[in-house]
Write a structure and sequence with these properties.
mainly alpha, 82% helix, 11 helices
Length: 292
């Protein structure tokens, strides 16, 4: 069993090395959608050169068509390069893959390197756990960023409605509202409005593109509402006020659902604690009955 694990470990390392070499010599050809998206998308931040480790680890996964579309949307929200995420995911997979043998070596009292053989299923389970953990971390952080973007959008819409009621134009109201708010989400909204001003397109078009890129449906709905309402002050002010009220209602419902979910999750530990306490109280009596 020990020799089999050693052979499998060297086989996995050799296979990964060959896959890295092949992916480096024959890079994956981007699809038509990806190529057109690269032409249309303007870089939001300065692109930093990727390290050699990141390129080597991400190349095989890119050749397999990873990551998925939902993960790409999450990375767009986080403004994180796809190659870096794939490299981190590969490192997490390898760490989980070799965690069981390393743990057995540490716990082995004989001091032999392969004194205890880790089962293959434990190694595969550890690798899958590391892969899932890296994916789950990205999804959770992206969900938090999307919530921040929704809250910032609600605050910006409140300020826009007030500015429109004071006689300001739509673009000026959007510029002032984004400038008066702080944070990462407000910066993304301000960047979208500035991009519309540079490209000489309506601001709702770039806001809709931002919503499609980040997966925030509320931005796409806002863009559709603004495009239908036009630029008339009364009509667009009423439409934005209704959209802002709807967004706040959705946020309140989401917060209430999160609170209810947290309450339900807390009920299980309380029940287990109560059961353990009752067992602690009843065990001496039951043990005393058995002695008779």
């Amino acid at each position: 069993m020990t020799g089999l694990n050693v052979s499998l470990s060297f086989g996995v390392l050799a296979g990964l090395g060959l896959l890295l070499i092949v992916s480096g010599l024959v890079p994956a050809r981007p699809t038509l959608t990806q190529a057109l998206d690269r032409l249309r998308r303007t870089p939001s931040t300065a692109v930093e050169p990727l390290a050699l480790r990141v390129r080597l680890l991400s190349a095989p996964l890119r050749a397999l068509g990873l990551p998925r579309a939902s993960t790409r949307a999450d990375l767009a929200v986080l403004e994180r390069p796809v190659a870096k995420h794939l490299a981190d995911q590969a490192i997490a997979f390898l760490a989980g893959l070799f965690l069981p043998p390393v743990a057995l070596v540490v716990l082995d009292g004989n001091g032999e390197l392969f004194g205890a053989a880790a089962p293959l299923w434990a190694c595969l389970l550890g690798g899958a756990g590391g892969w899932w953990l890296a994916e789950y971390t990205v999804h959770a952080e992206a969900a938090r960023r999307r919530d921040e973007l929704r809250h910032a959008l609600s605050a910006v819409l409140d300020l826009v409605v007030i500015s429109l009621a004071g006689g300001a134009g739509l673009e000026q109201a959007l510029d002032d509202a984004c400038a008066d708010t702080n944070g990462w989400a407000a910066h993304r909204l301000n960047r979208a409005v500035a991009t519309a001003r540079v490209l000489r397109v309506p601001p709702w078009q770039t806001l809709g593109d931002l919503g499609q890129e980040t997966g925030v449906v509320e931005l796409e709905e806002l863009a559709a509402t603004m495009s239908l309402a036009g630029t008339e002050g009364a009509r667009i002010r009423h439409s934005l006020a209704v959209r802002c009220a709807t967004l706040r209602a959705h946020q309140a419902a989401a917060l209430e659902a999160k609170a209810n979910s947290a309450t339900e999750r807390m009920s299980m530990p309380v029940m287990l604690l109560a059961a353990a306490y009752m067992l602690f109280l009843l065990y001496p009596a039951v043990a005393g009955i058995d002695t008779f």
